[in-house]
Predict the structure.
Amino acid sequence: MKYFSDTSNPEQNNRKTYQALIITLAGNLILALSKLYVAHVSGSSALQADAYNSLSDVLYSVTLVIGMMIAIRPADISHPQGHRRFEPLVGLLISFSMAWAGYQAISESIDKIRNGPTTFDLGLPILVLFFSAVIKGVMYWLIHRIAIDLSSPTLKTAATDNLMDTITSFTAIIGIYLSSIWSPLADPIAGILVSVWIFRAAFEALQENLGFLTGAGASEERRQQFLDIIRSVPGVANVHQLFAEHVGSTFVLDVHINVDGNTPLYQVHRIETEIEEKLTAIPDVERAYIHVEPLGYE
């Protein structure tokens, strides 16, 4: 009698997860400290906004490390299907940290507009932001590859955050440059634009992870993909029920099919097994429960 799944995560997958966590935490910590120092020295609102964004990245990195260390643990009696369902909870916390960064950044920028922006030397802030954009671009590339290999939505979210950070850094560079050739207000305005970008990313992450946590269903495109796979198995006469919902960040499928009532039991078992194997071969499908009924039953 089995009480929990005895399928553990391969060591290679765990090693890739550790690599992604180290890259995320170390990169964000270095960038946050660099930006905060230069923003304090230079007085740039755009750089200050980007520094708050990086500071939130450090907070979510710590959360990501803790959450993923739990998520990659193998199944046990307390969590019979494994611990990967902790992933969307981590993603939810990341979205809150991003929103906090957006609030801090927009508050700082509005305060600069009210009290009047200060002038500052352009060289060091632009250099730091350009360095940040390059580092974040490399981090996105590395973590995105690992996320695809592991089919990890949380790591995909972290990778996307790095990509958006690259964009916000270039936005801040433009604001700082325009402050010197157009108006000093360009710098805090760029800070507000960065804040809006942060809020947008936070909302999208919140929406996605709430869907994971509340059992959101599959899109029409995904449902059709599942149906095509099921109908391709020889012996399946009809599919009269397909429930596809998120349990954590992965899908659990409840499938009801019809087969010829005279089909021998061992062939029915073969049909069930083939459907299950094909569906669970999809990276984001955790389990598929197959119910077989004779023709005419629905």
Summary: The chain has eight helices and three strands. The CA atoms of residues 237 and 259 lie 5 Å apart. The helical segments are 11-42, 45-71, 87-115, 123-150, 153-181, 186-213, 220-231, 265-280.
